[in-house]
Amino acid sequence: MTTSTMPTEITEILENPARRLLLKGSAGAVAALGIMSLTPFVRAEELSSLPGYASWKRKQDLILHSEATMETRRNAIRSGIVTPSETLFVRNNLPAPDASIVADPDAWEVRFEGVNDPRTLTLGELKKIDVQTVASVLQCSGNGRAFFPHGASGTQWSVGAAGCVVWTGVPLKAVIDTLGGPSGGAKFITGTGGEEIPDGLDAKEVMVERSVPLEVMERVLLAWELNDDPIPIAHGGPLRMVVPGFYGVNNVKYVKYVALTENESNAKIQVSGYRVRDVGVSGAPDQPSMWEMNIKSWITLPLDTTEQGRNMLYGVALGGTRTVDKVEVSVDDGETWQEAELLGPDLGPYAWRPFVLATELSPGEYRIVSRATDVEGNSQPEARMDNERGYGHNGWRDHGVTVTVS
Ligand SMILES: Nc1nc2c(c(=O)[nH]1)N[C@H]1C(S)=C(S)[C@@H](COP(=O)(O)O)O[C@H]1N2
Ligand SMILES: [Mo]
């Protein structure tokens, strides 16, 4: 193996714990890759319980894909408007930092660049600038990957790499204003995660550093609370860059560096990772980046079986950056549709909205599907859009459930 192919290989392993295990089994390969010092993620079959940093989670609500990837079970959401932190999915690209970094949150330091007065501020100082709260769906780009027939590599998420949560923090705009405004030429907001890069690895190949267009600045928060509690280490505490309406990866955990930049980050996760391309094609900077989320919905209840007679069919619908206007539900795989009722308060354009349809079901087998439409008239497509890594799946057909009524 040449040095130039080595890092690509490592990133693939980091993205795909199963492959990592394969390589771990071969001491020679591991030594050749120089990843001896990297804490290996343990595969689900080897996990008897939740990993330490997530031990406070509700195990019965989660599917353990690996030590670094935990999916919320479809039946754990029901009619939930806000996803409890104990139920929320987890996805780490690198081993999570030591929990000692959340012991004294206000001491956490963040470096700001690309402003007229570049400075390092503590979380304690950030808290005094301003504060805002936003409800927002956190969803992995690969949520729904399991439905792609070509076998897209990466965690095989079904519908549970998503949750709707409440973040509290300082608007980034207020911080930038405090630091004298952008220093000029800025087109992107770039945030860097605070993980330590394991020895022997090239930082740019594995670091979590993401850039998003400067135009979304008004909605970006540097958040220290998740669902009214200080953000736990599993979800990026003590401080996280939250970009409401954008896919999970852009919501950088343990953020330690924020810069207004002319160019996108040159980290691999930005350059070729999280790029939508045809099956068989490699990632490249000219392909669309996984930024804004698309409209999507899925049924949460009933699943598998239910009793005949009156039934309440539940689900959740998200509009990405636009408020959900209506959700239709079909119990005959899309032949006929009925409009569902939206539940609970409207928590804004970035939140999801639970829905319910009361209907009579007689004994038999039903394919129940849902289709959401936003206030601008955008609807979910019927089919998935095939792409190499299985990103952004919002086709309604694949997301349905088959229920036997007796
Ligand atoms: N620093 C850092 N931020 C990160 C990640 C990471 O590994 N490190 N993973 C990203 C990805 S791919 C997703 S889907 C979300 C997952 O957030 P959660 O683990 O809080 O659910 O965090 C994003 N932010
Ligand atoms: Mo993700």
TrEMBL record:
Q: Which UniProt keywords apply?
A: Metal-binding, Molybdenum, Oxidoreductase
Q: Where is the Moybdenum cofactor oxidoreductase dimerisation domain?
A: 289-397
Keyword Oxidoreductase listed: yes
Q: Which PROSITE patterns match?
A: TAT
Q: List the GO molecular function terms.
A: heme binding; molybdenum ion binding; molybdopterin cofactor binding; sulfite oxidase activity
Give the domain of life.
Answer: Bacteria
Asked whether the keyword tRNA-binding is assigned, the reply is no
Q: Name one GO biological process term.
A: sulfur compound metabolic process
Region Disordered, residue ranges: 377-397
Which Gene3D superfamilies does the annotation name? 2.60.40.650, Oxidoreductase, molybdopterin-binding domain
InterPro entries noted in UniProt: Ig_E-set (IPR014756), MoCF_OxRdtse_dimer (IPR005066), Mopterin_OxRdtase_euk (IPR008335), OxRdtase_Mopterin-bd_dom (IPR000572), OxRdtase_Mopterin-bd_sf (IPR036374), TAT_signal (IPR006311)
- What cofactor(s) does the depicted protein rely on? Mo-molybdopterin
Please report the stretch or stretches of sequence annotated as the Oxidoreductase molybdopterin-binding domain.
Answer: 103-267
Write out the biased-composition intervals (Basic and acidic residues): 383-397
Q: What is this protein called?
A: Sulfite oxidase
UniProt organism field: Litchfieldella anticariensis (strain DSM 16096 / CECT 5854 / CIP 108499 / LMG 22089 / FP35) (Halomonas anticariensis)
